[in-house]
Amino acid sequence: MPKYRLYVLESAAKRFHTLREFEAPGDGLAVALVEDARGREALELWCGNKRVKAWDALSIEQVPPLLVSEDPAPPPRRT
Predict the structure, then answer these.
(1) How far is 57 from 63, CA to CA, in rounded Å?
(2) Which H, E and C letters describe the chain, residue by residue?
(3) What is the average pLDDT value for the chain, to the nearest integer?
(4) Nearest to 28, CA basis, from 58, 64, 2, 63
(5) How far apart are CA 76 and CA 53, in angstroms?
(6) pLDDT tens for residues 21-57?
(7) How much is the pTM?
(8) What is the pLDDT of residue 68?
């Protein structure tokens, strides 16, 4: 299974400050895993010496809101 490296970049300097390594069966699934878990940071995904995809940093307006029920159910009572 291919090994991937995900670099979390400092937006201004484009230098990485965090490296995460993982395995995935292919580029498509590796990209999907990153997109499902990404935050606001700029990212680069690599497999060996191939850059698979790069993501720009997101502004706060671009981050999806949390799903919150307008009328949440109360927590269960403990007895």
Answers:
(1) 10
(2) CCEEEEEEEECCCCEEEEEEEEECCCHHHHHHHHHHHCCCCEEEEEECCEEEEEECCCCHHHCCCCCCCCCCCCCCCCC
(3) 82
(4) 2
(5) 44
(6) 999 999 999 999 998 888 788 999 999 999 999 998 8
(7) 0.71
(8) 45
**Under 8 Å between Cβ of 22 and 7:** no
* CB-based burial label for 6 (10 Å; 0-12, 13-18, 19+): buried
The more confidently predicted of residues 50 and 62 is: 50
Residue whose structure tokens are 């484009």: 14
Q: Are 68 and 23 in contact (CB under 8 A)?
A: no
- The rounded Cα 42 to chain-centroid distance in angstroms is 9
- Count how many Cα atoms sit within 13 Å of the Cα of residue 51 in the half-sphere of its side chain: 6
